[in-house]
From TrEMBL:
Domain Amine oxidase, residue spans: 67-190
Protein name: Amine oxidase domain-containing protein
SUPFAM superfamilies associated with the record: FAD/NAD(P)-binding domain (SSF51905)
Source domain of life: Eukaryota
Pfam families: Amino_oxidase (PF01593)
PANTHER family for this protein: AMINE OXIDASE (PTHR42841)
Annotated InterPro entries: Amino_oxidase, FAD/NAD-bd_sf
Signal peptide stretch: none
Gene Ontology molecular function, alphabetical: oxidoreductase activity
């Protein structure tokens, strides 16, 4: 692949294959199909909805995230994305981002948009919300690993001989969690290879 982003992968990259890792197992591991020693990991799903509105009709100008702490309704959080970065929308427009927890599989898109608009009318008033224009909805089945307690942040990355597991779903659903998990898996693999007689 080449273009304005440059050549990918760069020529100076060197790839090595390992006998310990024959192929990427993430899909089968996440599906709980990699055999004994692995428990199917529950996941968190989300729906992201986006709306546009004239920028002069945004009810809040601060770059803040609104959280639903009421325990009622379907909206988990929302924010005016262009309050964070005006470049997220064309000049004179604002981008509204709304997140729900779950997939609401049985609810059609149109009905879900209507429910969200009704709920956000309670938050910001009808005068503000009625001018929002629905843009798009994304139903994301695997948005984040389930992190409900108990969690084992120090889980051994060895699943069985030659199979190591790593990823944010092993430690914590953060970039740091993914990196820490990857490092632990590599360290375990290197340690195991050092003790194997060739």
């Amino acid at each position: 692949m080449s273009g304005s982003w440059g050549e990918y992968p760069p020529k100076e990259w060197h790839f090595r294959n390992s006998r310990a890792i024959g192929r990427i197992e993430a899909v089968t591991i996440l599906a709980g199909k990699a055999g004994p020693g692995l428990v199917k990991m529950p996941v968190r799903s989300t729906i992201c909805l986006y709306f546009s509105v004239d920028s002069n009709r945004v009810p809040v100008k601060d770059p803040v995230l609104f959280l639903n702490g009421s325990g009622r309704g379907i909206v988990n959080n929302m924010f005016f994305a262009t309050n964070v970065a005006p470049s997220y929308a064309p000049p004179g427009q604002a981008l509204v981002s709304v997140s729900l927890i779950g997939l609401y599989d049985s609810v059609p898109d149109e009905e879900l948009v209507e429910q969200v608009m009704k709920e956000l009318t309670d938050w910001f008033g009808e005068a503000a919300v009625r001018s929002w224009r629905y843009l798009r909805m994304y139903r994301i089945g695997f948005a984040q690993p389930n992190q409900c307690p108990p969690t084992n942040l120090m889980k051994d990355p060895r699943v069985k001989p030659g199979l190591y597991i790593c990823g944010d779903y092993v430690t914590s659903a953060t970039f740091d969690g993914a990196l820490v998990s990857g490092r632990r898996a590599v360290e375990a693999l290197l340690k195991d290879r050092a003790t194997v007689k060739v």
